[in-house]
Amino acid sequence: MFEVLGLALALTASSDSLTYSGRGGQLDVSPPRFADASIDIDGRLDEPRWAEAALLTGFTQYEPVEGIEASEVTEVRVFYTDEAIYFGIRARDSDPSGILARLGERDRAPLADDWVRIMLDTFDDQRQAYAFYVNPLGLQADGLWIEGLRRGRGGTGGGGVSIDFNPDFIWESDGRVDEEGWEAEIRIPYVSLRFNEVPSQNWGIQVAREIKRRGFKQSWAPLTKETASTLSQSGRLVGLMDIHPRRLVELTPVTTGVRTGSAETGDFLRDDASAEFGLNGRVGVTQNLVLDGTYNPDFSQIEADANRISVNERFALFFPEKRAFFLEGAEIFNTPSNLVYTRRIVDPIGGAKLTGKVGAFNVGYIGAMDESPRTLGGGTGSAAFNLIRARRDIGVGSTVGFLYADRSMRDGSGAYNRVFAGDARLVFGGRYTLTTQAAGSLTRGEDDTGHTGIEPLLMANLARSGRTFSWSLAYSDIWSDFSAQSGFITRAGDTDVSANVTFTRFGAAGAALESTSLRVMTNNFFSHEGFWNADLPFEHEVEMWSTLSFRGGRVLTFVLRNGYFRFEPASYDAYSIRAPDGSEQAFQVPAPLRNMKAFGVIPRVRVNNQINLNGRVYLREVPIFAEASRGFELQLGPSLEFKPTTGLQLSLAHTFSKIWRRNQANVTGTEPATGSLYSVVNLSRGRVQYQFTKSIFVRGVVQYELSERDLLTDPTTRYPLLHGGALVDAREGGEFQGQFLVQYEPSPGTIFYIGYTRLMEGDRSYRLGRMDPIEDGIFVKLSYLFRM
């Protein structure tokens, strides 16, 4: 008992020489080095080593009120050995019963709970850092903080929008809640990190914590949004001596089994069960350069892409990459324009990848042979992908980069698409960032048809960061024949000029209304030729987003918009009109749509620790692209998250979209058709998951999409529209997707799961008896990561 008491006193009163206060500006930390750790990662700071570790104290709040002393005390201890670096966390809480701590999936669940995040900038270059999250139960999330990367709406200063959560690293953690708050232990082996091979290391370090029920975020090194770079505001671990980890060697054999059924022949038939073997490998060429290889890779996805409404879309929908082989090192291939989109590699036979850092250069290469179902000319055949990327650090926080992307058909046609690009991100004046890119594509069709010269892409973005005032200006110009067959470019032939400015005011500490912000944005789209001929834009909008943030993580956003849209005649060349006598008449593109109004409300309501309610309500005028008419849409999107126990999670989401025509007569001509229905979509998704342990869960997902769309009609003559001489008739139907999964994943790379999925189509009904099966499948996967 006396030994435990003595250890507790030692942990409370570390030597002054090993105590570093962030608020006191003591940001250079010299952690002790021990020959051995003598630590059991069990979430209890009860070993003597923790009393000898360096102590990080003096945290500062950065959200919602910036710069004040943290509301709850956080202490983080750190030391290292020749194999790993260790962190011990004591997160004190005045109300331990309010701590959010639940089991769930790695990389997902911890971010919805209380958490502590440790960021390690192992190259100390203020451009990229490893991010390790742990919740009070020791559940992990990890990724890479990349300066300049933005996820959704948000700013800088540690808001989490700059993290790519796709990479997974192998490290140990555990935690527990007690009467003082919660504590956790973390061990990060050097073999999971990349850093300089020098005798003495200096790493950037930042520690942050969120108390979820209050929405309070605090950091060890004070953070401010008045500076464009978050990593430049970090502290440092200095004098890390003689770190020599073993070279990374990983081998992951993968076995998959599947039995599928389909109704391609009219009858629903099931194939025989089949199994495949694949192999993934990783070798550290140097400490900072890793070679990945894969043979017959399993690119199955545990959970299908969530459906999105596509009844009134002009462009292809973007879905993120989920396949592990492409995710490792993916940050190197990020460019300002999305010129690398690895989901273009649909069905690879095998591939190789080299990623890492050489001196001041981040370098990457991906090569893959794809048995793709689509050629550049629209036929079928295989393709070879070769993607080369290099990015150099310059100055303080700035970079310049180069990209080469080649997709060449291997079907004898000689078709290819090649893209060359250069980009730069320049940080200056502390708060300003200039991002630019210039690219050119070169395309040749099958049998030397469709050969193009170099078709350019240009873009630039200038941004000012700030806590109370920020803005950005953006320009993107894509020539009509520019093509990136290894990337994701939706608007070739368009020039986009946009701007936004944001004003924010913050309440006093403890105020019910923590902040208010007003964001005004304008987007202006020109045809490429029209822009350089000083023509007016074909699409223009001004939006105003007003956001009220209340205590306890409750947010209410109001949206107002006024817009303009002009239909381009070239998009309707195949259209004609069927007159009452059965003859075809020319289709005339109607006048531009002016003063298109929109109003929206987006609430995010945290009811308590178990229930979150979110949603959106839009009332807006929209272009109906399929018939070049003016429409009015009502869109509702409520969602519910319910987590009644540590292991049970339930989410329900529904999207309802109803579009009416405006200022159009009906087809019969007997009365004005203003308000006639164009389309209705109901998209419902339910997800239930039970987590038995950190590694084992069972999950079920169901999704219905019920839709109907009216016969397409001409907006001025009231007659039916023809496309390519064929009537575009009314349609309706329903689709059901269901999936059940049991998964065991003790660590990244080692996984076993078995699941069942089913797709059905039929009537616009929630009754499965009125739908027919289209596809189903039972699938099994087993992989094991050997780290040598």
Report on this structure:
- The protein is mainly β and 788 residues long.
- The strands form 4 sheets. The chain has a 28-stranded antiparallel β-sheet that branches.
- A hairpin with a 4-residue loop joins β36 (617-624) and β37.
- The longest helix has 11 residues, at 2-12.
- Mean pLDDT is 87; it is low at 1-10, 151-160, 301-309 and 664-674.
What is the overall pLDDT average?
Answer: 87
Uncertain runs: 1-10, 151-160, 301-309, 664-674
Which assembly state applies to the chains in this document?
single chain
Bulk shape: globular
Measure the end-to-end span: 41 Å
Rg: 28 Å
Largest sheet: 28 strands, antiparallel
Number of helices: 4
Structural class label: mainly beta
Share of residues in strands: over 45%
Layout of helices and strands, plus pairs?
Blueprint lengths: L1 H11 L6 E3 L6 E2 L19 H4 L1 E4 L2 E4 L10 E7 L3 E9 L22 E7 L6 E7 L5 E7 L16 E2 L7 E7 L2 E9 L10 E12 L4 E4 L15 E7 L7 E14 L6 E2 L3 E11 L4 E7 L28 H4 L20 E11 L2 E10 L12 E12 L3 E12 L6 E13 L3 E13 L10 E10 L4 E10 L15 E13 L6 E15 H5 L6 E12 L3 E12 L9 E4 L5 E3 L6 E14 L4 E4 L2 E8 L4 E8 L2 E4 L5 E14 L15 E15 L4 E14 L11 E3 L2 E2 L3 E17 L2 E13 L8 E13 L2 E2 L1
Parallel strand pairs: 1-3, 2-15
Antiparallel strand pairs: 3-5, 4-14, 5-6, 6-12, 7-8, 7-13, 8-9, 9-10, 11-12, 13-14, 13-15, 16-17, 16-18, 16-46, 16-47, 18-19, 19-20, 20-21, 21-22, 22-23, 23-24, 24-25, 25-26, 26-27, 27-28, 28-29, 29-30, 30-31, 31-34, 32-33, 32-42, 34-35, 34-36, 35-38, 36-37, 37-39, 38-39, 39-40, 40-41, 41-44, ...
